[in-house]
Request: fold
Amino acid sequence: MGEARQNRLNAFLEGAGWETAVRAPLSVDASFRRYIRLTLDGKSALVMDAPPPHEDVRPFIQVDTHLRLLGLSAPEIFAEDVEGGFLLLEDFGDATFTNLLASGADERTLYQLATDTLIALHALDQAASIPGWLAPYDDVKLRDEAALLLDWFMPAHGIEVPTHARAEFERICYDLFTHVHAGPHTLVLRDYHVDNLMRLGERDGIKACGLLDFQDALAGHPAYDLMSLLQDARRDIPQDLQADMLDRYCDALDIAGAARTDFERAYTILAAQRHAKVIGIFTRLDRRDGKPVYLKHIDRLWRLLEAALDHPDLASLKSWMDEHIAHDKRRAPEAFG
Reply:
């Protein structure tokens, strides 16, 4: 952190009454954000350091406020410096689902809590769950994200993407996305997985599920967050647990018959879109940002993507992949440099 930014942080903490707190930097994530834990007189809080112009705290504030109004557990915001990119947040502690699973917590119990939290959110009327200012998860956004596979992963393996091939990829995507847009819509958190969920031991029911990293929320299909949870880029989840949570979700929301078929089709299309996107993002984190640690997940992501491509409604996308990305290239590239 440069001197000018350090001075602004000091001024922010002074104004919030935390200038004498003990500061402990926490691990960084895949973005430009970082977090600092503050301890003062037996209390704790977190500073979100989101440096402009790389980051903007306003979407976080908007979504955080909305989630808390809906009765969900997003961190309370104690102080803001919007222009400087600093927020003082409620500290949810260290009990992320990832940490709990690593220490032997019951996997099924945690995934039930995460699934039930989505059920509660998606059971709300669309007018309540989607605020008027929330942008849609539209064709252009979905396409541009999926195309990160073409922009970063394919070049990392020396695969050229001719103009006609990209145009065909986009056409296939648009055709598939019609099935997604035809379904119901809700607030989509977009990065809903165990790294961003916390067990809040002092709270009951779905309030025990603390939510993090939701500033990129959009209005889209409810299958997206459930798929993001159950087809995690960073960890293998047993097939029976995935199936049970999908059944738990659909049974709770009375999704059956043709509606269940439509939901599962959208789920699979969005799985293919997300896995292609994340393969591209993890490659970009290595190539552009010097963070090769994410490359280790790409082999898993290809397994998930290929499983989605086996769905009969994704046959055209499978054919495109088979033509343009050889199977021996469907692996993590060598770390850059």
Observations:
- The first strand starts at residue 22 and ends at 25.
